[in-house]
Amino acid sequence: MVQETQPSAFVSEIFSSAQGEGVNIGRRQLFVRFCECHRRCLYCDTNVERTENLRIELEPGCDQFLDVPNPVGLDRLLDLIEQANRPEFAHDDLFITGGEPLLYADFLEQMLPEACRRLGLPVHLETSSDMPKAFAQITPWVDHVLMDIKLPSVTGEAGTWDEHLEFLKQIISSGTDATIKLVVNADTTQDDLDRAIAILRESGSEFPVILQPMTATLQSDRTPTAKQILGWQSQMAVALGQTVRIIPQTHKMMGLL
Ligand code: SF4
To answer: How many angstroms does the Cα of residue 163 sit away from the middle of ligand 1?
Structure first.
């Protein structure tokens, strides 16, 4: 008899915290962070390599962790997620992030239906939104997408405009909810903003749009000036005919994971 191989994934963290970005700021979420990313954004604040262990925070905010060797099998991961979803934490959502979680679309396609069944929580997905085919594999189990539109002048990478447009159309046609996030810094170009506006208009998106000023780090402070970001906000709001919000990464202000 041939034994079926258990699918596995490299997962870096499981923890309970408050969402720090986008329109869902403050919601209590159970975070599952997958390792690895195909992108190398200049401002990335996440380790995008495979980690030796999955670390699970023992209590919310305690900064002490249980290590579980990577890769983690599907059944084991589902058990760990279920154990971390303690009723006293009152999670609002399961938040799937990375790295780029869609690199694990095959794994997520198996994981999410069972996670939804066991946890009964809405699933939120954070993604660089340039892998529309991978997203199609898991769309039925995703309730909300925190979708980046990556600006080349900020990421230091080539544009992925066509992929973002296709991704956005897919979210809309599937009836999934979303937030659009643009990380901006002092180097943001007018051309990139125009391209982002063009995509949003072409797709017919009415999702909330967030301008997220890049957080200053010890290595780099390319935070946009007040004049820059207020100008971009007005410009986008007029062009799109909708509210455009400026929201920084609030979890960093509070020292949350
Ligand atoms: S897409 Fe996200 S995780 Fe990947 S390199 Fe960019 S900021 Fe980092």
So the answer is: 16
Q: Which atom of ligand 1 is nearest to the CA of 40?
A: 5
SS3 per-residue string spanning 98-137: CCCHHHHHHHHHHHHHHHHHHHCCCEEEEECCCCHHHHHH
- Model confidence over 110-129: pLDDT tens digits? 999 999 999 999 999 999 99
Superfamily of domain 9-254: Aldolase class I (3.20.20.70)
pLDDT at 6: 85
The answer, yes or no, to whether any atom of ligand 1 lies below 6 A from the CB of 99, is yes
Pocket test residue of 12, 34, 47, 48 for ligand 1, highest count of atoms within 8 A of CB: 48
Say which residues have a Cβ less than 8 Å from residue 197's Cβ, sequence separation at least 6.
236, 239, 240
**Contact, 22 vs 1, CB < 8 A?**
no
